[in-house]
Design a protein that fits this description.
The chain is an alpha/beta fold. It has 29 helices and 21 strands. The protein has an eight-stranded mixed beta sheet with strand order 16-15-14-17-18-19-20-21. The protein binds 1,4-dihydronicotinamide adenine dinucleotide. The site of 1,4-dihydronicotinamide adenine dinucleotide has 25 residues, from helix 14 and helix 17.
Length: about 700
């Protein structure tokens, strides 16, 4: 067995070389420059030794290869450097493709980006047929597209429609889906992986040719038509000026698809240009910030109290959720989906029945296979008497937003809870220091503020009061990671971070509407900025009653004016989508889609419409940072991106201020302050940002 830093290479008695990728000092394999260089020298060796076959696999339990080493993207200074990096990656995969013996990629777990491109260079791909196996080319999510030959090879292998869909959405597929697509040659259970690879090398099976219509999709006469259709589809989701990568990929394939050499060169030029652009750099930054949020839930600091004897992991098996309403029901369902044993308590049987119905719908969508759906449902137990409290590692309270109701409940459950179990509340507006006064151990209460809909919103604000035990905050973050959500520590101040920053933006949209600007014009202005959904649609979706409640909470402690229009809509019962009407009408015949036409030329559109909404948001962000609601500007940015969908390609509110220039924005704020009054008074800390 030869000695390498990032690989293990063994040749067995049948003269098959088994190359295991094992990136040093990392839990996941990524194609770093150093790793690629080592692979080049291994190929030198293999080319001269000529084994019967080569099987490339991973020594990491987490998976095959997660992609290129994204850290290296941030160090690129110019196009020449970028092209050199891409050429290297392409070069080593081309060499694997040209080897004169059979090559097999033996895949388990993640096989993404550069990892899948490496596998595409092999003659055969075999993967474990298990729930952890995911294959995909997610580069567009980082503002680039495949550059190590993926764009050249995938459309040839599985046909353009499926290949372009994978590359344009960045969606990954399971082993069985990959097998159906023709991306995998075999999907087998874990225990058969080695045998399958061995037999493929011993007797390379015949490859089924691509179906004629899939082949046809790459034909020079078909490409322009398909490209036009794909462009239209992409344009409906991501405008070219904000997200250039998918368009660049379509253009590249339309021009050179089928000509491998030209495609590879095209990939090199196109990705080198994209990676240096603002969109990619901002998306890459957001990727690392997301990793930072993940790491916040990695371990626990030593407790300042006696409740936890040691630092380290927090073993979470059982969760008890109290309140089976909109939030509690969905939180319980999500926890069971993620593998925890969950009991969910409510005062009413009928509410619990609805929780199970909603959960079944979610599981069918996410898990598909009836056996897996049943297993998840078995983990979710209705518990009207609250028997689960005594056994739970985490108790989450999500009952009515009422201090007395919550405190009565705490007094009842605290004596029943296991020592050291986490007591968390999903309150969206009550200060924790108020709620915790009734507890024997007030420092144990922590906020886990989920967003609606729970299954879609990745962020969870971890709310801490001055007296919250820091170890409890860490445990809440660990729990959040355990259920695959992103924890963001925030202080127990009105609106916490996300609602506080979102609300002024929504309220300004309501003010604009009451001035006579049509909802669709307002929404379009926000979409043009890069928001995923306009503020009026968002308010209708969240529920105008909920918006009003949050706005009123903020108005009690801050200088926020609640527009009369919002109140009158709620009073008249028009509370948004759920009532069939809010700012828009949602006819039952249109399945929840609002009745609206595209903004027309004659529509009234104030020149400063976008600034009015965005600047109020930015002003609140600046204030939150000054007050220390979150620890730093990076956390603020990532929190607002994942909590509100704030245009990710702009890198978050604080990053946007930095790149646009604080002085420029402050000047605009001052103008608006004069024109529209106090709600535009610039926060005192703008000056220091300049
Ligand atoms: P909801 O009104 O839909 O559900 C509350 C549920 O709690 C009801 O089913 C009720 O029967 C049950 N309940 C009340 N007292 C109980 C008790 N003593 N024991 C057992 N069950 C009891 O309310 P929703 O919207 O789910 O809100 C729950 C909490 O989550 C509130 O604190 C709210 O501020 C917070 N929240 C709500 C969000 C939203 O968008 N709706 C977003 C984030 C947080």
């Amino acid at each position: 067995m030869a000695n390498y830093k990032h690989f293990q290479l063994e040749t067995d008695a049948q003269n098959i070389a088994w190359l295991s990728i094992d990136k040093a000092d990392a839990s996941t394999n990524a194609l770093s420059r150093e790793l690629v260089e080592e692979l080049e020298s291994i190929l030198d060796e293999l080319e001269s030794e000529r084994p019967k076959g080569l099987v490339i696999r991973s020594a990491k339990p987490s998976g095959f290869v997660a992609g290129a080493d994204i850290k290296e993207f941030t160090a690129i200074e110019n196009e020449a450097q970028a092209r050199e990096l891409i050429r290297r990656g392409q070069g080593v995969i081309n060499r694997i493709e040209r080897l004169r013996f059979t090559t097999v990629a033996l895949i388990h777990g993640f096989c993404l980006g550069g990892g899948l491109e490496l596998a595409l260079g092999c003659d055969y791909r075999i993967a474990e047929d298990g729930p952890k196996t995911r294959l995909g080319l997610p580069e567009v999510k980082l503002g680039i597209h495949p550059g190590f030959g993926g764009a050249a090879r995938l459309p040839q292998l599985i046909g353009a429609p499926a290949a372009m869909d994978m590359m344009l959405t960045g969606r990954s597929v399971s082993a069985s889906a990959a097998k159906r697509l023709g991306l995998l040659d075999f999907a087998v259970p874990d225990r058969h992986l080695e045998t399958a690879a061995r037999s493929v090398v011993q007797k390379p099976p015949h490859k089924k040719p691509l179906a004629w219509w899939k082949k046809l999709s790459n034909h020079p006469l078909v490409r322009p038509l398909l490209a036009k259709y794909l462009t239209k589809q992409v344009a409906a989701k991501a405008p070219r000026k904000h997200y250039p990568a998918p368009y660049a990929l379509i253009d590249l394939w339309a021009k050179h698809g089928g000509n491998k050499k030209a495609m590879l060169q095209g990939e090199e030029h196109s990705v080198a240009r994209l990676v240096l652009g603002d969109t990619a750099q901002n998306l890459i930054r957001v990727f690392f910030l997301q990793e930072r949020l993940k790491s916040l839930g990695a371990s626990r600091s030593v407790s300042s109290s006696e409740r936890n004897a040691s630092a380290g992991t927090f073993d979470i098996q059982r969760v008890h959720v109290i309140g089976g309403g909109v939030m509690g029901g969905d939180i319980a369902a999500w926890c069971a989906l993620r593998g925890l044993q969950v009991t969910v308590q409510d005062r009413q049987e009928a509410t619990l029945a609805r929780v199970i119905q909603r959960a079944a719908k979610l599981y069918k969508k996410k898990l598909k296979k009836p056996r897996l759906v049943q297993e998840a449902l078995d983990r979710l137990m209705p518990d009207i008497h609250g028997l689960g409290v005594a056994r739970a590692d985490v108790v989450i309270e999500a009952i009515f937003e009422d201090v007395e109701a919550k405190q009565n409940l705490y007094q009842e459950i605290e004596p029943q809870m296991k020592p050291g179990a986490l007591l968390a509340t999903n309150t969206s507006s009550i200060p924790l220091e108020v709620l915790s006064t009734c507890l024997a151990e007030p420092s144990r209460l922590v906020g886990v503020h989920f967003f609606n809909p729970v299954a879609m919103m990745q962020l969870v604000e971890i709310v801490n009061a001055p007296n919250t035990d820091p170890a409890v905050v860490d445990e809440a973050a660990m729990f959040t990671r355990r259920i695959d959500r992103l924890p963001l520590p925030v202080t127990s101040t009105p609106g916490f971070l996300v609602n506080r920053i979102l609300m002024p933006y929504l309220l300004e949209a309501v003010v604009l509407e009451s001035e006579g600007v049509s909802p669709k014009v307002i929404d379009q202005a926000a979409l043009d900025f890069g928001m995923p959904m306009g503020p009026i649609t968002l308010a209708d979706t969240v529920g105008l009653d909920i918006c009003l409640a949050v706005a009123e909470t903020l108005a009690r402690s801050m200088d926020v004016e609640v527009p009369a229009r919002l109140r009158s809509l709620v009073e008249s019962g028009r509370v948004g989508k759920k009532s069939g009407e809010g700012f828009y009408r949602y006819p039952a015949t249109k399945k929840g889609k609002p009745e609206m036409s595209k903004p027309g030329r004659g529509d009234y559109r104030p020149a400063d419409i976008q600034d009015r909404m965005i600047l109020r948001m930015l002003n609140e962000a600046v204030a939150c940072l000054r007050e220390g609601v979150v620890a730093d500007s990076d956390l603020l940015d990532v929190g607002i991106i994942f909590g509100t969908g704030f245009a990710p390609f702009r890198g978050g509110p604080m990053h946007y201020i930095e790149t646009t220039g604080a002085d420029v924005l402050l000047e605009k704020m001052r103008t608006m302050h004069k024109k529209y009054g106090e709600r535009f008074a610039p926060d005192e800390s703008w000056q220091q940002l300049g």
